[in-house]
Design a protein that fits this description.
This protein has 149 residues and is α+β, with helices and mostly antiparallel strands. It has a single domain, classed as START domain (Alpha-D-Glucose-1,6-Bisphosphate, Chain A, domain 4). The chain has 4 helices and 7 strands. It is globular. The N and C termini lie far apart (35 Å).
Amino acid sequence: MGLLTGAASAEIEAPIEQVWALVEDVAVAPEWQGGLKALRPVERDAEGRATLCESETDAKVTTIKTQVRFAYEAPTRLTWKQVKGDLKALDGRWELEDLGDGRTRATYGLELDTGRMLGMLIRGPVESLIRDMLVNSRPGELKKRIEQG
């Protein structure tokens, strides 16, 4: 596998402030993001938002453990970057766009490099499953959580 990149979007029937409230509460992400087993805050900023977290993600053939640092640009952008962990590199983002009339476009983007050893485990059909779980499904999961509660 090695390098996995991608982005996916969904239009959500909710105002940007409501969508942002869920996106910025990264500690609850395992409740609605498939495959994300745990996200434990290690550090928080002055506003109480998690800035450094330990995460565990089910990658089908193994559990990937990382420590990620978050940056907040309310209410339109959340980014994260691995500072240490099982992956060679990890960068992700949520970008929110106010579409008016109480609607929001949410775009999820991810760039990860599994490195050589983990890349040997994650190949072929498993790679496709992981891309669907870690990239393609995220906006739909957000939409479902917001619209259905």
